[in-house]
Design a protein that fits this description.
The chain contains 18 helices and no strands. It is mostly helical. The protein is globular, with a radius of gyration of 21 Å.
């Protein structure tokens, strides 16, 4: 156990840290809406779960395609301009939901979501490493977890607010206007973009960047990073985390409704409860990592996720043999517990993977921000759900969390040897 005496951040970085942390709330809200849109489009556009999964595929494809360009943009123009450009793309995609709703086709909505995803890629590529740099290096993981806690706050509010609106304010003959939440978001995003256009965010350089006399190109950084096995393992671990986390979020409402445990509206409220626990887990993890090594914390949480997935699969075996409501409730219980354990994973893996990269940090960040492409794994989850039982798809996040466990075990062992 390692006690860190340094604080979360220092006085001169406090205002920039607060402003950047607001962005985490924004993209948490935007991404969590997707988990509600899946079921909404299945009902209103009369498509199956596999077809509606294109929502996730298109969104996270936007992250994948835009992450490297975002990194190059930020390398040249800095974090603040990266944030403003990302917010601008977000606003354009949000307002395009108005003509998209008039068209009323899945393809139109997918185009809007792709543009929003490109904006989110710029925001996350800018804000994640920037938050980690805004303070003492020894508390970077704890600081990023604190910022990501507000991402969790946006995540639980989205299904609560938007899910309640879409499932309760419309009917099958006259569904709720899906463009309305995006109009409100577009206006908010424009206001935030104006604030960031005028605020002065310090461009923080790593020690290597400050000391280096030579300019390192993006391709040089990329080649250097591809020669770092522990970074590559972190990249794979983050990809697998995204597969597990996004697949579970996207499948949650369908799982609860297909097993007969809840209506779509009730399932969206249960998802909000799970995401509240997810948010609280990040706040708790941020504090605990001032006392416990981040590597050890990640290992414990990965173990918890693996156990939860195994227990859900076991309840699925029992559900085939026992016709009892408590079996379904037990699976939901373990699913919610998983949200607590996975809560610290993204910021912790992200921060650990960036450690020691020096002048390659921005390029490393852009590579790590390609990992939301793991959200396309929901397409496989959806296909397995349609071909088998509602429980079998949890094999996929189980395998993903096992990879995270392997990464955490390697990092914890290396950290213990250094200590």
């Amino acid at each position: 156990m390692k006690h860190q005496s340094a604080g979360i951040t220092n006085k001169q970085c406090l205002i920039p840290f607060i402003l950047v942390t607001c962005l985490f709330f924004l993209w948490g809200f935007a991404r969590a809406i997707l988990d509600v849109l899946n079921k909404h489009f299945q009902t209103t556009l009369h498509v199956g779960i596999t077809e509606s999964a294109w929502i996730q595929v298109v969104t996270y494809l936007g992250y994948f395609l835009m992450a490297i360009p975002a990194g190059l943009f930020i390398n040249r123009f800095g974090y603040r301009k990266g944030v403003v450009f990302g917010l601008s793309l977000f606003a354009i995609g949000a307002f395009l939901f108005v003509p998209g709703a008039q068209t009323g086709t899945l393809e139109a909505f997918l185009c809007c979501l792709f543009i929003i995803a490109c904006g989110l890629a710029f925001l996350e590529t800018s804000a994640n490493p920037y938050s980690a740099l805004l303070g003492p290096q020894e508390t970077s993981t704890s600081r990023l977890n604190l910022s990501q806690s507000f991402n969790g706050m946006g995540s639980f509010l989205a299904p609560l607010i938007v899910g309640g609106f879409l499932f309760n304010s419309g009917s099958e003959d006259s569904p709720a206007d899906v463009s309305l939440p995006y109009i409100y978001m577009g206006v908010l995003v424009i206001i935030i973009a104006i604030i960031f256009s005028f605020v002065n965010l310090p461009e923080i350089k790593t020690t290597d960047e400050a000391d280096s006399r030579e300019q390192t190109s993006g391709m040089d950084s990329l080649r250097a990073l591809l020669r770092k096995p522990i970074f590559l393992l972190g990249l794979v671990a983050l990809l697998c985390y995204e597969i597990g986390e996004i697949s579970i979020n996207s499948y949650f409402v369908n799982f609860a409704t297909d097993t007969g445990m809840a209506s779509p509206a009730t399932a969206s409220y249960i998802l909000s409860l799970a995401l509240i626990i997810f948010m609280l887990g990040r706040f708790l993890g941020s504090g605990l990592m001032l006392l416990i090594r981040a590597e050890r914390m990640l290992l414990l949480c990965a173990s918890g996720c693996v156990c939860c997935m195994v227990m859900i699969l076991c309840t699925g075996l029992l559900a085939d043999r026992i016709d009892a409501t408590w079996i379904g409730n037990l699976s939901i219980f373990f699913l919610i517990c998983n949200y607590l354990f996975e809560s610290i994973m993204f910021p912790t893996i992200f921060s650990l993977a960036l450690q020691g990269l020096g002048r390659h940090t921005k390029t490393g960040s852009s590579l790590l921000m390609m990992t939301p492409i793991g959200g396309c794994g929901f397409m496989l989850v959806a296909w397995v759900a349609e071909q088998t039982t509602p429980f079998i798809p949890f094999v996929i996040p189980l395998l993903a969390f096992l990879v995270v466990w392997i990464y955490a075990w390697n990092k914890d062992r290396a950290s213990s040897i250094r200590a």
